[in-house]
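During the no-cost extension, the postdoctoral fellow (Dr. R.K.) reprocessed legacy sequence entries with the updated structure-token encoder. One reprocessed record is reproduced below for audit purposes.
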Amino acid sequence: MKPVVGTRKGKRIREREEDEQPSPNSNSKSNLVFPASRPTPEECASVRDALLALHGFPQEFVRYRNQRLSKTSSDHGKETVLDGLVKTILSQNTTELNSQRAFASLTSAFPTWEHVLSAETKQIEDVIRCGGLAPTKSSCIKNILSCLFQRRGKLCMEYLRELPIQQVKDELSLFKGIGPKTVACVLMFNLEHDDFPVDTHVYQIAKSIGWVPSTADIKRTYLHLNQRIPNELKFDLNCLLYTHGYSANIAVEEAVGEDSICSTGPELSGLTTGDDEHGTDS
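Re-encoded structure tokens follow.
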């Protein structure tokens, strides 16, 4: 059994490795270069069950999970697509707590997205500073709002709910600053599509338990896991793998300190990497 790899500096990040993610149009099976048949549906279900027993379902994702399980089609009470997109941008390279504070500060200072659009970029930067990377994030948010208004005549992205997955990917890729990892998060959390974002936590665990080769990059890991993991397991498994990776990271840092580089963490009980390694990408 290989240990789950701890990730860097205890940061709870939904949005990572943006430039390494696949193009939103890179969803052809011809891009999948790992010939082995792992993970199997049974493995996916086993990991899901093991992590549910270990952590329970993470509270921060319960709202999104309940919306997916709801029998009604009403959008009442749902987080808007634009809200979700901005939250994902604010979560880049920071902790969950800091990104939540930044979003709360932004919506407190500017009651509507129209107010944000009318504000100077420096004003936006000042109110989201607690979330880190404020100059980059403020410019990105302002650019998205400006482009959205120019293209649609209003600051609303609810029209994306009516589009199939590939059209959503194509549409969001037109906005500067929205990378494929952001797209995957919006698809899974806000549009309730069956997508499987791969952040640093998910990526490291997938390598650690042998679901992809140790040489796999994030792009190919994303493509491979989206093909191999059954749609009905994607949401729960993604949230649980992320939570497990974060927990492993915190445990490592508490044990060895923030400045240490460590590759150990809580193991997935009863899981092995299997006898067969994934093939190469030749």
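Residues 1-21, 23-31, 256-266, 272-282 have pLDDT under 50 and may be disordered. The chain is about 50% helix and 0% strand. The remaining legacy entries will be reprocessed before the final report is submitted.
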